[in-house]
Structures are given as structure tokens and as C-alpha cells.
Amino acid sequence: MQERVLLAGRAGAGKSAAIRAVSAIAPTLTDAGRVAGGAALELETGVMDIGRGAPLMLYGAPSPERFDAAWEELVDRCTGVLLLVDHSAAGPAEALRGYRKLLARRRGAPRPLVVGVTHTDIAPHRPMTIYRAAAGRHDDYPLPLFAMDARKPLDVRAGVLTLVALLEMHRRFAGAGTQD
Fold first, then answer.
1. CATH number of 4-173: 3.40.50.300, 3.40.50.1970, 3.40.50.20, 1.10.3720.10?
2. Which of 7, 71, 105, 171 is the 20 to 30 A CA-CA neighbour of 98?
3. CB of 10 within 8 A of CB of 95?
4. What is the DSSP letter of 55?
């Protein structure tokens, strides 16, 4: 099965930089169709080699405020979400809560989610602890959340590979229930 990861986040959070940092090919813009009002929806796409034979597809999507219904369909088509939160923007913890609400209302099984907090160098005075309450638990596991420089391949790979590990865990233990 080919993995498809949606890189989500507000404008300026680092989606394009993250795709450029790890893509084995030059990232491209893909026409994903039209949405209400006739506006074109374009996704930035890339491919990441994770050493398992099948490449991992990366899709950078515009924020859901602009393309709400289309955004939900994108989430449905992806196997996991790497959410980038801009630490230097106004209300970053509220942005995380908003995306969590959007992901919670979607149809079907929950998608694995990892949060990368970007631009921590621009707002070093703001503590990372502001995200803990907003992160909480996702699909019965603590939400992985860490600082990430979206321009650095090692940081982005760490986020993506954490997501791949969660995907594997979901597949192996789906329906197994919890053991006490």
C-alpha cells in the first residue's frame, strides 16, 4: 500500500519548505479540482523515499478555511497527517485545537496525526508547553508533538517517520483492543 501523507497547517507554517526538504523529486503543483465558487484547489506534491520499496507521497494542502469540504476529502484520501503549527503566529495553540476539531469530525477511522511546531527560533520566548493541553490524546495515544525546522531534512524526516510508525502500529493492532 502506498502511503499518502497530508502536510497541513496555516499559511506560512512550512508545508512547502518541508516538502522541498525531503522530496526525492522537484515538488510540483497538482490541480486537485474545483471547489465551491469555482476556485482551483492546488496541492504541492512530493515523494519521499523511506527505504521500504514504495515511495511515500507528500501532499501540502492550503488551510481548510479556504477549502473546507475539499480539505475533508483530502484527509480521507491520505493515510496520515503531519500538522505544522507556526509557533511565531498569533494563537498557535488555538490553531492546533482547530485542526484537531476538523480531524475529529471527519468520517471513518481516525488518521494518525503528528504535530511539528515550526518557527520556534522566531518566538523563543513562547514556551512549547502551551501545546500540551491543546494536543491531548488522539485515537487513544498521546499526540506526538515536537519542534521542527521545516527547512531541515532531518527534522522533517523525524516527523514523517514518526507518522509512518503510527501507521504501522494502527495496522498491526487494529481491532486488537487494549490489554490491561
1. 3.40.50.300
2. 171
3. yes
4. P
The DSSP annotation for 96-162 comes to HHHHHHHHHTSSSSPPPEEEEEE-TTT-TTS-GGGGHHHH-EETTEEPPEEE--TT-HHHHHHHHHH
pTM over 0.90: no
Residues 109, 90: Cα–Cα separation, whole Å: 31
Q: What is the DSSP letter of 67?
A: S
Q: In the numeric block, which cell numbers belong to residue 15?
A: 508545508
Q: Which residues of 61-97 are buried (b: 16+ CB within 10 A; e: fewer)?
A: bbbbeebeebbbbbbeebbbbbbbbbbbbeebbebbb
Chain segment 35-66, per-residue pLDDT in tens: 556 666 678 889 998 887 778 999 998 777 66
Residues of the chain with pLDDT under 70: 1, 31-41, 65-69, 105-110, 137-141, 174-180
